Structure formats: C-alpha cells, structure tokens
Amino acid sequence: NISQPPDGLACSMMALPYIEAISTATYYITRVFAPLNRHIFFLSSLAVFVSAYFYISIHSKLSAGGEMADTQVDSHQELPFQPPSPPSSSSPSAREKMGNTQEEKTDTTQEEENIGNTQKEKEEEKMGTTQEEKEKVGINQEDSTEDLPRHSSPLPPPPSPFASASPAAPQRYEAQESARFKLTETCLLILHRGDITEWFVDGQSDAIVNAANRRLLGGGGVDGAIHSAAGRDLLTACKNIPEVHPGVRCPVGSARITRGFQLSASYIIHAVGPIYHLEEYPESKLSDAYRSSLEVARENDVKYIAFPAISCGVYGYPYEEAAEVSLTTVRDNATNLKEVHFVLFEEPAWDAW
C-alpha cells in the first residue's frame, strides 16, 4: 500500500528474497544432514545464524542510508550556528595574536577613560558657570517650609509662581465675557463669566473667595471645584484650622484664609454664607460673609480679590438679591484694594450681577 517508500525501506525489501532463499536452503540442508552427522548439524545451524546476522546488518545499513538521504533532501533547513573553536594556546602564532588583541583592548580602554575624564571636566566647567550665573541673577533654590496657617491672622507673602519667568508681566486671567466698572476712586469692579479656579492677577497679592461650609472640608459646587483644583494640601490646611465649636471651624458670616497651593492665585479666603431658607436674617449674614472676606484680605495685603456668587445655587439665595447685597457691601468696604472681581459661572448669576 506504500506508493513511494523511503530508499532504505525499498532496499530492504529488494534484499529480502535473497535472504529468504538462503534461510530456506539452510533449513532443508539441516533437515537432511542433521541425523547423519552432528558436525554437519552444527555447521548448518551456524549458517542460519550467519544468514540472520547478515540480514540484520544489511537492513540496518540500508535503513541508515535512507535516513541520510531524507536528511539531504531537507537541506533547506538552517543548521544552528557553531562558533569556531579558539586557537590552541600551544601555537606560537596564536599566542602572538592573543597578545596583540589584549594590547589593543588595553589601548581602547585607556582612550575611553581619557574621553570620560574630558567629558567630566567639561560638565564641571558648565556646572561652575551655571552656578556663577545663578549667583549673579540671584536665584534662590531653597523651598519654603513654613507651617500652614491656623486662623485668619496675616500670612507671610507667598512665593510667586512667576518669579522665574521672564521680566515681562504675566498674562492675567481674561474671560470670554467681561465688564469693567469704577467701584471707587481707587478701585475697579470687574465682572467675568468663567471659572474662578483659573482666576489670578499676579500670583503674589491676589486671592479668590471660596463659598465654603462651616466645617471647611470641601463640598459641592464652587467649594468642591476649588478643593479639586488646589489639591490635597488645601484639605490638610483646612483641617489645621482650629474649631470654634464642635465640627465648626468657620461660623456663618465669617472667613478664614489659606494658601492657594496648586491654584494660580496666591490665597484662598473661605467665607461661609447663609442658607437662605434657614436663616432668620439671610441678608445680614450674607453681608457679613463679604465684609469678613474683605477684612481678611486687607490683613494679608491682598490687592486683588475675586468672589463667586456666595450662597447662590445649593444654598438657595435668589440671584438678584444676592447681587445687590454683594455689590453694596463691596463698595462700602473695598479699602486698600485695587480691583474687586466677580467670577460667575452660571448664566443667571452673570445676568443678575
């Protein structure tokens, strides 16, 4: 049933009839002459074993030849790479070549060391030049490690985020919609439609006001947006503010101050406004929140301040009434300020202010 048998198997099949003929002849010789003489029987048996031996040897050699032929047919397969054996160390020429190679490696190593020393010298010269330039310009590389404030007392001025920038004044916050008014003889009122977390003027004397709750631990609306933008350090600073009552760090109508942390503005003033439907006199409490914020700003030499619509939204204060209270209070208490900003995110608040 094999249409194309391997070469070894074919050769074995061709030799098989001859081997069988020898075995058959040996068998009959044994049957005839074995009773006559034991020597003849012995020789006949030996012939059988010799025939079997030659049969096995021929079959093995022919099979091995067939396997070699099959291996040669598959010569397209790649053989694994075997690196050449190293030269004998007893040969004089090999020793000389090995010595020359070691000398070349030593020379190459010395050249690399010389190049590395030259590069180090150049880097040290550059570092020295850079240090001299920094000393001339007056760059201070020390970071401030002052403790966070625990109350609304004056804070030392924060480092400006624009101190290492070019001498030109930084680009201050500008919204798509803005309006300017003269609040007093020395102070401007500027309204913006935008995000208060992005507001800043100079990064040194500017502050945004957070519409906070009494715990000062963050919340929703403007409070949550400011905590998210300022980072985790803001929550740590708020927790360091002492409680005036259990669970109350800033009563309604009061204000506290912290750093701006990751905000562009230098300070955050946390003011707590009234919940419109729970306060008996919400107008008075809202006015106190704006007034307290302006007092804290003045104590910390803040010249630019930005308010949101305090108590509007979740606290339910009507926009029209809140706008009237805020503008009246700011106009009467904006002493020592250069600019008062209102950054209003929602359209009803923008329209009301």
TrEMBL record:
Swiss-Prot/TrEMBL keywords: Membrane, Transmembrane, Transmembrane helix
**Region of interest (Disordered), ranges:** 69-175
Which superkingdom is the protein from?
Answer: Eukaryota
User: Could you list the residue ranges that cross the membrane?
Assistant: 40-58
User: Spans of biased composition, class Basic and acidic residues?
Assistant: 94-108, 119-137
Tell me which residues make up the Macro domain: 176-353
Q: Pfam families, from UniProt?
A: Macro
Protein's UniProt keywords contain DNA-binding: no
Signal sequence annotation: none
The answer to whether the entry has keyword ATP-binding is no
> CDD domains from the xrefs?
Macro_OAADPr_deacetylase
Give the protein's recorded name: Macro domain-containing protein
Taxonomy of origin reads: Eukaryota, Viridiplantae, Streptophyta, Embryophyta, Tracheophyta
